[in-house]
Amino acid sequence: MLAAMPGHSLQRNVPMTFSIHRRPSWAISENQATPEGVYLDRRRILQGFGLGMLTAATLAASAGVGRAQDADPTADLYPAKKNEAYKLDRPVTPEEINGHYNNFYEFGTAKDIAANAQNLVIRPWEIEIGGLVETPFTIAFDDLVRKIPLETRLYRHRCVEAWSMTVPWAGFPLKSLVALAKPQASAKFVRFETFLDPEMADGQNDFLYPWPYIEGVTIEEAGHDLAFIVTGAYDKPVAKQHGAPLRLHLPWKYGFKSIKSIRKISFVEERPIGLWEALQPSEYGFWANVNPEVPHPRWSQAMERVLDTGELVPTQLFNGYAAEVAGLYTGMDPATLYM
Ligand code: MTE
After folding, report:
1. What is the distance in A from the centroid of ligand 1 to the CA of 214?
2. Considering only CA atoms, which residue is closest to atom 17 of ligand 1?
3. Are 306 and 91 in contact (CB under 8 A)?
4. Nearest Cα residue to atom 6 of ligand 1
5. Whose CA is nearest to atom 22 of ligand 1?
6. What distance in Å separates the CA atoms of residue 335 and residue 266, rounded to the nearest whole number?
7. Do residues 99 and 36 touch, judged by C-beta distance below 8 A?
8. Integer Cα distance of 255 and 290 in angstroms
9. In the predicted structure, residue 328 carries a pLDDT above the cut 70
10. What pLDDT sits at residue 89?
11. Ranges of each domain in the chain
12. pLDDT tens for residues 133-177?
């Protein structure tokens, strides 16, 4: 996202002129969402990623993909019942692809941090809930995940770097967690914080970044149906490189808002300043709502590269979720909403 982020190279791939061909809404017939196994072409994956020397088995093993999950005490919760209201207009990205194309700076600035992210220790894992709430409390992830029914939703995921993927996330609506926290009326924002452990996560020794990773949303955004706490993906507990044991996903915003491996959730009066905003406020703002017409200062946001196929497709306002979320921003200054 800074110079280290690949926005520069992506920019070279995005044509300067193109005709925007609006796709239908994201919510169309689910039979267009191909299950990952159906079209997964391992040879293409290996070639596409320049990993021709590796076997698919090596690739999968290094990321924990396909590894037996029987050690995970929450494995029995998956697959979670599919919520049919959340559908896609494009195929689900194969697990092997997006499990090797991640942003998790705690484990390095490269995209393939999957092997390094296996150093993340996710048991025990406690989440502190505090700030402006009735009574602050700390809860073990294994208890939290059984308090709220899990569901599976197909979501798009659009990174500010102009690539996108689609994922069958499992988890629960953030609003259910807000209800559990019982915020006071004075709470205006929800602030999320990732772990801080430079011994475990070597990227946190990089003093360029103001660790720990922090993100925030307004209390209204946190209450929106689409705001989702992810605990699983691909019918099992979410992989470490995707932010185990729990992460946020806000599908209408650029991916950097969707903080991984959450340790602390606070209800606050002041707008939280996220890691990227703290680092580069002219490039990464608080709102970060997807808008193809508002370029990043260093590259266009008009198109996006779909992971796996490499296809360039037009980006949609609010990442295709405008009908659902535009109402959250009525009357607000559009000059700030997409930054
Ligand atoms: N959360 C933490 N803690 N650390 C990170 O580096 N990267 C963000 C977001 N959440 C990040 C994070 C960015 S830039 C993106 S695009 C998404 O996670 C990537 O999620 P994925 O790797 O599961 O695709």
Report:
1. 11
2. 255
3. no
4. 104
5. 102
6. 28
7. no
8. 9
9. yes
10. 82
11. 30-336
12. 999 999 999 999 999 999 999 999 999 999 999 999 999 999 999
